[in-house]
Design a protein that fits this description.
Elements (H helix, E strand, L loop, with lengths): L4 H25 L4 E4 L6 E5 L3 E6 L4 E5 L8 H27 L10 H37 L12 E2 L1 H41 L1
Antiparallel strand pairs: 1-2, 1-5, 2-3, 3-4
């Protein structure tokens, strides 16, 4: 027999969380957390990421340079490196646990309680990975806004602005949290259905 509606919902939640995890991994790698347009040289666009700074010229050429020192980075970027890497690792673990706990996963089908625990652990890990993604992205965005509107900085000094990775990180965090929440809900519903099944069988007898 094919997968039930509950199993299909679990699979959809897992795919949503996986989309968030992939987006989180991309956010971690790309050097697009901050953008800077120089008024003196409009032909160059500066992009800053967690690992390197890139300069994109008008003709399309891009030159990147890695950050020289981890300790020289601003506090929000240092924290973002650690939290994003932790989020990506936790998301991978959550994907493995959730996949093993799906109703459509036939091995160990008779061990419903163990599969339910795996599903709940996977959902909780996805939710935690979502929080670990949202926190550093929001922190970097908050500091970018503060620096942009800082009146103590002269107007002639260029200001960093939001990069594309900031918005991708927000989407990734929400997808991870939403997918994890749906997996947790499906695990709790499975427990309710399992508990009600013996009662219904006893009433039928």
């Amino acid at each position: 027999m094919g997968c039930s509606c509950s199993a299909a919902a679990q699979l959809g939640a897992l795919l949503l969380a996986l989309l968030g995890w992939v987006s989180s991994c991309v956010t971690t790698v790309v050097p697009l957390w901050k953008n800077l347009n120089l008024d003196l040289n409009e032909l160059e666009i500066w992009n800053m990421g967690l690992w390197q700074v890139c300069i994109i010229q008008e003709e399309g050429a891009m030159e990147c340079k890695a950050h020289e020192s981890f300790l020289a980075l601003p506090p929000e970027l240092r924290a973002a490196r650690l939290l994003m890497c932790l989020s990506n690792g936790l998301g991978f673990l959550a994907a493995v646990l959730s996949a093993l706990g799906l109703d459509c996963w036939r091995p160990c089908e008779e061990r419903g309680a163990r599969k339910r625990r795996l599903l709940l652990c996977g959902g909780a890990a996805f939710g935690a990975a979502g929080v670990l993604t949202l926190v550093p992205v929001s922190w970097v965005a908050y500091n970018t806004v503060l620096e942009f509107w800082d009146e103590t900085i002269p107007d002639i000094v260029p200001r960093w602005e939001f990069g594309e990775a900031t918005f991708l990180g927000w989407f990734a965090g929400f997808f991870l949290a939403a997918g994890g929440s749906l997996l947790l809900c499906s695990g709790c519903l499975r427990r309710t259905e399992t508990a009600s099944a013996p009662a219904a069988a006893a009433a039928a007898r």
